[in-house]
Amino acid sequence: MKMLKYAFVVAMAVASVACSKWTEEERLTFDNQTNLKRSVPLIEVTSADQLTPEQQKYYADLRAWKQTPHVRGFGWFGGWTAKGTDPQKYLRMLPDSVDIVSLWGTHGDLTEAQKADLKIFREVKGGKVLLCWIVSNLGDQLTPQGKSATDYWVTEKGGGNFLEGVKAYANAICDTIEKYDLDGFDIDYEPYYSGDGNLATKLTAVVQDGATYYADYKKYPETDWVGAEADIIDASSERNIGMYTFVKTLYDRLHPKGRMILFDGEPYLLSTEASKMIDFYVYQAYDDDSRTTAEVQTKIAKGKNLDRWEAKTFLTLEFQKYSKTGGYPTYTSSNPDIQKLDVGRQIMDYATWIMPNGKRIAGIGTYHMELDIEGGNYRFLRQALKAGNRVSDTQKADFQ
User: Are strands 98-104 and 72-78 parallel, antiparallel or unpaired?
Assistant: First the structure.
């Protein structure tokens, strides 16, 4: 695997103007200028018209930059309240270089404070905000209390037909997205990690060289695992048509309106056709099989059958456990400059990743991004995105 040729350390002294101003710690206020209204701290802003002309120019430039090729910033954001003085409770206080946020633990019923915060993050900073939860079974997170998922979604909403019930469930998610003017849905699909269900199917057993392996894909040879027909998300009734129907229903509602679908966890279970409906594949590369550069490369290579698999790949890491060390503490990078770092090797490796086609990775992200407070708000994510986007004019072709 190729890595970036330039050297860097965690505390970089110089970054290009194009990216550094989006990754530095934002000032809460801008300098007042003659004859301009008082500058309001961003955490207190309730509408965009409270911004000074200087701020408006700054954020217009930021939104324009987010439309150019770059390593995108992503994260699952938990504990969102948009209240109080803690910046980690606000979307608007995320680093300017963050492009996409998946709301973790938020399933709708937004408060007025959250609605205002959402509006500022989207309209001022140009960020995208998605609903997200683990989808294992029909009706997850949306089945009315006191009703069984089968009775409500299949019998009542689907007229007794399971796939019609799946469509109803997907449309209910879209209704919530449209109600709050969100930017799409992030499907957390992990049948071999978080458990299977009637939408998240997995092999019950596979026979290889006379031995039978049960529900543990890590024991399967890679070719057999990727080609396991029963698990592949596809329109065929011999495959996982339930999840395919779910994805297609979301796509038919969201795509025409410019909204997104992310597929995280195990995207290599998508068929090529199904993958065409997905905007980005988000690999949760923070498990036992993702502790070295080589292991991560093997993990994402399982998705070679996916549509534009290199251009649409995100790598993410675990901050619920490893926020203080910028990822897995003993992560081993093949880049000697990164390997010298005391902390942050994993996130810096991901941010500077080169895909097999020689192009840059689509983006990086963190799980429970709001916990990144060691040494300053979002220290590791800021530094990693600065490293990933520190590109000269002659290197811009490195991006997808």
Answer: parallel
